Amino acid sequence: MTHPPMSHAAPPLGSVVRMLLRRTIDTYRDSPQAAGWLEHNLSRFDEPLRVAIAGKVKAGKSTLLNALVGEQIAPTDAGECTRIVTWYRDAQVPKVMMFPRSAPPRQLTISRGSGGLSFDLQGTPVEQVDKLDVQWPSQSLRTQTLIDTPGIASLSRDASARAGAFLAPDDSPSQADAVIYLMRHLHATDVRFLESFYDQGVAKATPINTIAVLSRADEIGVGRLDALSSARRIARRYRADEKIRGLCQTVVAVAGLLAETGRTMRQDEFAALTQLSALPRAEIDAMLLSADRFSRTDPDSTDVPDREARAKLMERFGLFGVRLSTTLIRQGMTDPTAISTELVKRSGLDDLRTVLSTQFAERRDLLKARSALLAIDLVLTREPRPASAPLAAEVERILAGAHEFAELRLLSTLRSGTVKLAPDVLAEAERLLGADGGSAAARLGLDPGTGPDELRAAALDAATRWKRRSESPMSGRAVADVARLVVRSCEGVLAGLQR
Predict the structure, then answer these.
(1) For residues 295, 298, 299 and 304, what is the CA-based torsion angle, rounded to 10 degrees?
(2) What pLDDT score was predicted for residue 107?
(3) Angle 184-50-60 (CA atoms, 0-180°, nearest 5)?
């Protein structure tokens, strides 16, 4: 058997774009605004990935952020701070900075309530605040900066406009490298927003940097114990929809409240749930017919949490969380740590974390390079000059020639249904192009612990198969073009395994 020829390893995309950024900075040294903007984007390469959390009002954005961090820091009530774009970054000591639109930044006093942090804006109207910067010691924030955005389609035009201006600005690239978009169900507003966020331009194509989350998944089926199974079926149906596939990388079902509570559950809450689980099954089931009934109905037994305590439990766990927790305790799970772990597992948060790792963390350099190229393009467009012509040509060369961007374009094409392939062939093509993650194992559909010899053999086999498909007289031109690019991806895997 003849093996496909190996390609010479190209310089890493991140290194190439960094060099271009530095050249562009040198060219625009006499323009403080342009040079400052470019310097800022150069420094972004060394920052954690910026991940914005977006969605309509009450989609559960702040709750999901708290679940990802593992701590209640984002306010989850409908206060004024939820109308401001708020950044959450890792730091050695807690600090919150406010950035007014027409005044210097200043530090705010932090107070802690039952629903996350609260900030005193010191009399500054929300409309005059550009953003809040929350610096908080957190292991989870070391690899990604999370950005909480106001609700899309909010009754407050200002809040909705803020979210749109941050996520899809008209005159500059977004400050976020990637987006988690929350929706309670697929609504026309969600589709319109994803469409507005998507751009057919090479570097701006966003399915690669957008994940959709079917949020508050535990509320499907009125909090029944099979609610999350139903939500996962709906998410799978959305993932198979050609329209949605063309607008986001994948759809994951997550019960954000369950995940947040699982990661932050307190001993007194576990004790209260243990008391409730001791009630007769029929009695606790009757209480859990609705949130209001659970809080207001007094059971016959006196050894149960009072109304106020039950109302707080409902606020923290929801109907599904209380029902699941008491069921687990009745089944013999008496360790609060085990209960917390099970809540997080069932919430879908682990599934989302896996997707964030494979789709965002493994593509960190690609997403950062994409943001940098958009920043360079903005400067070249706004301040054209003769010396910038070679820079513009280099941007075009990178976009056209970098295999990473070719993969993005082809993934978008395949997801749109433009090229017709058999379902199993399409699934393999998308996987080899990196749809399930950029690692060799993910691309080849193998276990992460697979050894290099087995990975190499699988990559050679895939490259040979797709090379035959590219040369087959039965393949039309479009299919042959797809196959040739997939072969290049296989060769890239092989080159990476040789390093």
Answers:
(1) 70
(2) 93
(3) 20
* Residues 87 and 134 sit within 8 Å (Cβ to Cβ): yes
Q: What DSSP letter does each residue of 310-361 carry, written as one string?
A: HHHHHHHHHHHHHHHHHHHHHTT---HHHHHHHHHHHHTHHHHHHHIIIIIG
Name the token pair of 398.
């990178």
pLDDT recorded at residue 89: 95
229: tokens are 């199974």
Ranges of the chain with pLDDT below 70: 1-10, 78-80, 113-115, 153-159, 170-171, 196-208, 221-223, 499
pLDDT number for residue 155? 55
Tell me how far apart the alpha carbons of residues 311 and 294 are, in angstroms, rounded to a whole number.
8
Exposure letters 382-404 (e unless 16+ CB within 10 A, then b): eeeeeebeebeebbeebbeebbb
For 10, the token pair is 């190209």
Q: Report DSSP state, residue 48.
A: P
Contacts of 367 (CB under 8 A, 6+ apart): 49, 177, 178, 208, 209, 360
User: If DSSP codes are grouped into helix, strand and coil, which group holds residue 268?
Assistant: helix
Q: Which residues make Cβ contacts (< 8 Å) with residue 293, sequence separation at least 6?
A: 286, 287
User: What pLDDT does 301 receive?
Assistant: 72
**In this structure, which amino acid lies at residue 469?**
R
Long-range contact pairs involving 41-45 (C-beta distance under 8 Å, separation at least 24): 41/371, 41/372, 41/375, 41/376, 42/18, 42/372, 44/177, 44/368, 44/371, 44/372, 45/14, 45/18, 45/368, 45/372
| Residue whose C-alpha is closest to residue 181's, from 216, 204, 214 | 214
Q: How far apart are CA 424 and CA 415, in angstroms?
A: 14
Taking the C-alpha atoms of residue 322 and residue 314, their distance in angstroms, rounded to an integer, is 7
Closest-CA residue to 291 (of 316, 326, 264) = 316
pLDDT for 114 equals 63
Residue 82 φ/ψ, nearest 5 degrees: -75, -5
